[in-house]
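Our collaborator T.R. sent over the components below with a one-line note: 'Predict the complex.' Nothing else. No constraints on interfaces, no templates requested, no preferences about which chain binds where. So this is a plain run: every listed entity goes in together, and whatever single assembly comes back becomes the starting point for the next discussion.
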Amino acid sequence: MLSINLIPRSYFEAQFVRRLMVFFGVLLGLVLLAMLALTMMYEQKIARTNEQLQQVEVRAQQVEALEKQAADLRAEVKPIQDKIKYIRDVMTYNRKMVGVLQELARYTYRKVSYESVTPGEGGSTLTIVGVAPSIMDSGRYLLGLYRATNLFSGLTFSGVPGYRSGAGDSGQQAGGGLAALQGALSPVRFTAVCTLREPLVAPTPPGGAAPADAGAAAGVPSTSGMPPPGTPAALGAVPEPGQ
Amino acid sequence: MSKLTRLHVIVIGVVLNLVALAGAYFFLVKPRMEKFAAADAKLKERTAVADRLPVAEADRQKAELENLQARQDYRRYEDAKMPVISVADRTQAMIALWREQAEVLGPMIENWPRRYGVELLNNVSIPPATTNPNTPIPSPYVIDVGAMSVRGDFYSILRSIEGWNQFNRLVQISPMTIQGVSPSLTANYGLRVIIFPRGKMGPEVAMAKGSTDAAGAGGAGGGMAPPPMPMGAPDMGAGPPVGGPPGEVPGGGMPAP
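Returned assembly:
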């Protein structure tokens, strides 16, 4: 049997278009729903995070309060610690020269006598004026000083006589073998300028400024500093340890 | 409506969906994502802070101990080496300094080297303190005693130098010059007494106009000025006892604030 579709083609087209519109409508709805669901999900996450944040915040504030307290305690005690450090530094500084002299005595050749031991300006050098009985002894003394590398970083030594040339040549001016022998055996007055490995630098008071001199502050002339070294006394020997 | 073809519907549908998708993303989702990201970052940051709680507690305890230790240490030095000069009351501080510089310090310094078997060769002279209570007392307050000259054998001299660290005041010694023949060596050095006054500087004292500091004139101008400290021979016996254990500070005079 022959069946003839008499429905016009436009009818099917319109039906398809309607279905297409429904499809896109549903799709739009799904898209909006999905976006809404995503929004809700993020809202929940935000709420959960904020809740956690509130819990953590209490502890975090506690930590910050503790840290501030610790910083305040340290800041409060800083000036006191600075003063303590200064007091200790001053006491250490007072002992330094004693240590230097004790070490120097260890490296001093026993036949050498010192006239004076004077610290230089700024406390970086030590000037030693002394007398050795002979050139050989002054050499031994110098070799001893060279070994004091823990104490000195540099050393200049002067006073060793030449032949008929200034210091210590009194016995050589007469000439001749006996005179030369007398010259070799005559005392050698030497000066050794030693650069200290650790300079004797006075500590700085808290605040960094040089300490105010009470006398100067009150209008009194200051008498600070060392007296100028006087004329050296007679020859004297710095004893070696144990003596 | 009947004129819409499938192409029209597809184009319109796709565009509409894309617009809805973009609109919902940018206006609904994205702000919340950003908000969440910010909240999450803050949570992480604060969690990191909160996780430091045990460390912070320990550090605070440590700071407290440091604080206590420093105060105890300083109190020890203060008791042993500092006269009680509280600048909270300027007048009393000034008078305490008068006593310190005129009566207390000189005999103490003069008698000290003898404990170590060395002989003090020079006279100790201490400048007078200010007579103007409004003159600020610096911290540290330094009294320059000047040059000291002692005689003795090498090791006595070294012991006497080290011994200044046991003195009842904080003193700073400049590097010494040593001369002479052992056992009669002479050591020369400079001496400064360093005092940390206590308390904070109090209010200025109301004074009659024209009041000046007469300290520089050796006390002659002020009327109230203390005499300077012209010490005689080291054997001067009038001073207060010295050389006791730390804390046995003669003089001082003022109660602690």
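Summary for T.R.: Residues 115 and 233 of chain A are 7 Å apart (CA to CA).
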